[in-house]
Amino acid sequence: MLEIKNIKKSFSKKRVLKGISLTVEKGDIIGIIGPSGCGKSTLLRAINYLAPPDDGSIVFEGNKIEAKSNLISIRRKIGMVFQQFNLFENMTILENIILSPVETGIMTKNEAIKEAKQFLKKIDLIDKKDFYPSQLSGGQKQRIAIIRSLMMKPELMLFDEPTSALDPEMIGEVTNLMREIANEGMTMIVVSHEMNFIKNFCTKVIFMEGGKILEEGTSNEIFNSPKCEALKNFLSKVENI
Questions:
Q1: Those residues with Cβ within 8 angstroms of residue 149's Cβ, 6 or more apart along the chain or in another chain
Q2: 157 and 187 Cβ atoms separated by less than 8 Å
Q3: CA-based, 20 to 30 A from 166: which of 5, 46, 141, 173?
């Protein structure tokens, strides 16, 4: 589904990605772990060209992603959920959810409203449809951000620290929804510091440090049989995994 080949990215003179290669198959749930500043979020942003790589290539479903040609059509197939919720504060929850599919012509307004209500019922927030983002908790806002992405019918979902801005009691609300999406067959790449979630959720885990992938394998291999010293050191500092 996705082939990342030797991508590199620098900001000013700082090299953030130093030759990343990764293959993602349909149905994969890939977790990316590593210390802060190692390039995890930049890698996600490079995939959908929010941070276009300086070198290398990204091929999605056989098509090379390029800013000048097919970027808009490919972005519709790649949803992204950020640390912050990025909801429009002057719009109701329902208006936030239907905006993109209506503006891009994926659905009519009536179709979008119908589907949005179905999603809201699924996550028990239908009673909040006419509320504004400021009236919701962090966990509720992040779940709204997720279903807003799902409204675009993506084939790949990228999650950049989706629970980092949440209070501990709200994290479960978001991770439970992510599990439901995964169970329905969605291909996902998740950057997170929630090690227990990554360990128990992901089919494949990647460890990054210094802008490189140092180790990758199954969850069991990464967490129970790490090979490289950098990964061993990283995991030794993580509690309760």
A1: 79, 80, 81, 157
A2: yes
A3: 46
Instruction: Classify residue 17 as exposed, middle or buried by CB count within 10 Å of its CB (0-12, 13-18, 19+).
Output: buried
pLDDT tops 80 at residue 72: no
Taking only the tens place, the pLDDT of each residue in 111-132 is: 999 999 999 998 999 999 999 9
Is residue 218 a contact partner of residue 199, using CB atoms and an 8 Å limit? no
Strand ranges, E, within the chain: 2-11, 14-24, 29-33, 55-60, 63-64, 78-81, 156-160, 187-191, 204-209, 212-217
- Position 239 pLDDT exceeds 80: no
- Domain 2-84+154-236 part of CATH 3.40.50.300: yes
Q: Where are the domains of the chain?
A: 2-84+154-236
Q: Which residue blocks in 83-130 are alpha helix, DSSP H? A: 93-103, 109-122
